[in-house]
């Protein structure tokens, strides 16, 4: 199974709440650039996409959905910056089994994206994702072992 983990694009620093921060023009541009780089590597179709409910993550998906495609996009309240990586990891494995997923893209936030990456790649320290950063993990569900295949930074 291929797990793709992306951090939202660069966002404005101030808003009424953290959840309401919007992408900057630079954030939109760089997110799209990262998506195009992944597409050039042959990765643009996903069985499912899970997106944080925060505006900047939703806007990131709107931008990259012009390059990436899927039939199943869901807003997932568990993948906000305050999400618990262990719970998201367990949820992902259950979801993959029930829905027979071969690929899954998360559009989320720090620190969750780093901790979630380390859940899938056990011998890895949680990486610091730049905004618009995207990592691809090849995860063997039966062996419960993952390997980082590549990452793209904006």
Give your account of this protein's structure.
This protein has 4 helices and 6 strands. The protein has 154 residues and is of the alpha/beta class. It has a 6-stranded mixed β-sheet with strand order 3-2-4-1-5-6. Helix 1 (25-40) packs across helix 2 and helix 3 crosses helix 4 (112-120). The model has no long low-confidence stretch (mean pLDDT 97).
List the helices and strands and how they pair.
Elements: E1 2-7, H1 25-40, E2 48-51, H2 55-64, E3 73-75, H3 85-99, E4 103-108, H4 112-120, E5 134-140, E6 145-152
Parallel strand pairs: 1-4, 2-3, 2-4
Antiparallel strand pairs: 1-5, 5-6
Helix pairs in contact: 1-2, 3-4
Task: Jot down its keywords.
154 residues; single chain; 4 helices; alpha/beta
In whole angstroms, the N-to-C terminal distance is 25 Å
Say what oligomer this is.
Answer: single chain
Average pLDDT value?
97
Care to count the β-strands? 6
Structural class, by secondary structure, is alpha/beta
Categorize the overall geometry. Answer: globular
Strand content: 15-25%
Order of helices and strands: EHEHEHEHEE
Major sheet size, sense and barrel closure: 6 strands, mixed
Number of helices, counting only DSSP H or I runs of 4 residues or more: 4
How are strands sequenced across the largest beta sheet?
3-2-4-1-5-6
- Low-confidence stretches are none
Taking all Cα atoms into account, the compactness measure Rg is: 14 Å
**Fraction in helix:** 25-40%
